[in-house]
Every structure is written in structure tokens, then in C-alpha cells.
Amino acid sequence: MCRVIYHPKYDLYNLGESHPFSPQRVQMVIELLKEWNLYSEPLLPTPIESEKLKEIHREEYVDIIEKVSSGQIVDDLEAYGLGTSDNPICEGMAEGARYQVGGTVLGAQLLIEGKAKKVLQLGGGFHHAHYNQAAGFCLYNDLSMAIHEMVKHGWHVAYLDIDVHHGDGVQEMFYSNGKVMTISVHESGEYLFPGKGWIHELGQGIGRSLKLNIPLEPYSESDTYFEVLDKVIKPALSWFQPDALIVQAGADAHFTDPLADNLLTTQDYEKIFGKIIEFADNSCKGNVLFTLGGGYSPIATSRIWTLLYLIINNFEIPEVLPENWRKRWEEKLNIPILKTFHDNVPAFDPIPRHDEILRTNREIIRRLMDSVSQYWI
User: Fold this and answer.
1) Nearest to 337 by CA among 371, 298, 285, 286
2) Domain assignment of residue 62, yes or no
3) Annotated catalytic, 128?
């Protein structure tokens, strides 16, 4: 049975009406599931205490976020990544972020205590938050906090990031940790924020060979993602045999996403989510915690995360979107919404350098696995 975590106060993490990291994306998911009578009442997390956050974030950084979120004036905000277009100052944002971190930590606790095997946290995924700096729409790193709790319990943890942007904050916090494997599948930092996540970033000390990055060429399609699943993620988890898998399920590798270039469809995401759950069952003692993350086409993102909810709960995937939901969100967003749940699979225009992109991605996979295989004895 999947346990679902959500709190209406997640909406306090609202960075502005025009900001792409909008709470509307999750509202669309919940409303869609309610239209189908498939939404079960979630577990309500409590907000994590600011003092607890100081176990992974610098004390001064946490104090500043709490101050500016309540309207206090603080100098030199940009040194902390605050007050930028990506991370503007908004009243109540710290409380909203602490609720979302609390949700991800609750998911970790359910796994640790054996109260669930599969958990879906309808929030979080703040993988760009650093020890002392906000970045990429992220204030507090809920994923790292959850991993930290599991490691304190003595667990080995695998972290898988399928967001189109590199999971840099999580990787940095556990770069030397031998109990944490991080795997990030993302568009190459040569073209996309945050400009990191290269195959030579393998970790250091006892963490060496446990930090895996697959930086893909722009316009990468499903064939590459499925090769990554079978040739990198499956053998990595099979070798590491963690006690749990935490997944950042960003939806911004979809072909309509305005902030990136990769070309996945909802049909591709259905297969990817199914594979990840299979890997968790086979190599991670069945323990898996999914969070949300990026995804800036609201129509695509809401359907992808609804798809995750349906798959993890073993529900049938409907063919058609409810008319009431579709019309309501067409009016709110002022954009047309297709009638089918899945994408009308596009016939992409010829992708420039298609064969070269595929060859380059395969070479990245080969070089990465050659680099780590010498350590995997």
C-alpha cells in the first residue's frame, strides 16, 4: 500500500504569481484525482523545526531565511542566493518550505519504522538547495534531510534524480559519504542550469564511485533514457543494495517544458516510473520514497505526477481527461488542454544531429560505467 503525504500549507511556498515553481501544479493533480474519485486523504506532516534544519544547513543561513520570510530586513541577501529572480523573497515562504521538508522527512520515517514500503510525497524535491545558499527555486533541501535521517538510522540510501536539472545540492552534501549513492540523469550542464553534474564527479574518499552523473545531450529522447535505466541505474542499485531508494521525480524532461530541451512523453514517463518501482522492489528492499520537483509546463507536469500517483497505487490509467477539470483549468491558465490523459504522441520534426546525440549519450554511459566498475568489486 502506498502512503501519500500532503498538507495544504505547502501552498505557502509560493514565489510569486508569475514564478514557474507554482503550487498550481500540485493543485491540478489533486483536483484531477478527485474528479476520478481516486484521491485518498493524505497524511498531514508537521513542519520541520528550523533548529532541526541546522543539521544539514548552516545556522546563519537558516536564521536569515526565517527572518526575511517574516518581513525583516537583512543585508547582503544575494550572498545567500536570496532576492534573485529564481529565489525572490516572499512572505511565508520559510514556513511553506518547512512544511514541505517535514513531508519528505515523514516519508523517510514511515520507511524506517516499517509503516510503509512505498511513499509518495506530493511536494518537495528541492534538490538545488545548498548548505549555505538558495538556488534554482529551492530554499531548504528536503531530500538531503530525509537521507540524513535514514543514514542516522544506519541505513544505506540510494538517491535517484530524474529531474532534467542536475541534483547538485544533494550530491554536494553527501559527496564523501559511503552510505549514500546519488544518481542524476539530466540535460548536460554545458547547456542548462546549474552547469554541473559531469561524469568525472564520482565522489571522494569512501564516497568514491557512489556519485553517478549522466549528463545527456539536449533533445535526448526515450531510447536514451531507457538505456540509462538498464545500463546504469539497474546495475548500480543491484550492486549497492540500499535499504531505501529516494526519487526526485521532476517532470521537466517532457518535450513541452519551457525551461529545458529533452523530449520525453507521458507514455515514456509511465514506463520510467514502472521501471523505477521494479528496481526498488528488486534491489532496495521494496522501500521507495518519491517526491516531486521541477516541471514547468503545468499541463504536462500535472498529468505526469498524476500518472505517478496512479502507477504507485496500481490504479488503471484513464484514457480521457474529465471535462470539468479540463475546462476549469483552461480558464485559469488561459491555454488549451488536450482531451486525452496521455500525450498525442508527436511526430517530432527531424531532430538536428539525432544520430550524433544518441552516439554521444551512449559514449557517456560507457565512460561512466568504465569509471565506476573498477570500484564495484
Assistant:
1) 298
2) no
3) yes
